[in-house]
Amino acid sequence: MDFKEPITLEGKQKIDNELDQLIKVDREEIKVKIQEARELGDLKENAEYHSAKEKQSILEGRIAYLQGIVANCNVIDTSKIQGQDKVVFGATVLLHDEEKDKEIEYKIVGHEESDNRHGKISYKSPLGKALIGKEEGDTIVVRAPKGDLEYEILEVKYE
């Protein structure tokens, strides 16, 4: 049985929207640019043609990459998780950073949708791994390059 990478419903919709934009809009724009560049004549020394072909290559690579993610993902609707006391995939966790004496909130998501700046961490990250299976009130220690970081779990919720 193949392992399918978990992804939140929100993350899947974001990827689907990007794919839709790339395929229906960007791909068509590149086709037009390539056709216009071909009409300019000699392709060997045609900078517009080579630039458009390079952009097309990058675009097609991105489309293939996103399609691979969609084909190998398991969508988890976190709004349907109820009555769960432990931290599992999709949980939004409010933590107290012991060292900085401040509260921070993270949502545990799939690797492809993680974005630390927006409070989304991968379940594969050191912090994500440390949080999985814990409950409100637990204290966790995360080993980081700059030393051990200690957090207390204040709240676990599913949105």
Give a short synopsis of this structure.
The protein has three helices and seven strands; from the N terminus they run βααββββαββ. The protein has helices spanning 9-38, 47-71, 126-131; strands at 5-8, 73-76, 92-97, 102-109, 120-122, 139-144, 147-157.
Q: Could you explain the architecture of this structure?
A:
The chain is α/β, with parallel strands linked by helices and 159 residues long. It has two domains: 5-76, Transcription elongation factor, GreA/GreB, N-terminal domain (Helix Hairpins, Orthogonal Bundle), CATH 1.10.287; 78-157, Chitinase A, domain 3 (Roll). Helix content is 38%, strand content 26%. Strands 5-4-3-7-6 form a five-stranded mixed beta sheet. A hairpin with a 4-residue loop joins strand 3 and strand 4. The chain is elongated and about 70 Å long.
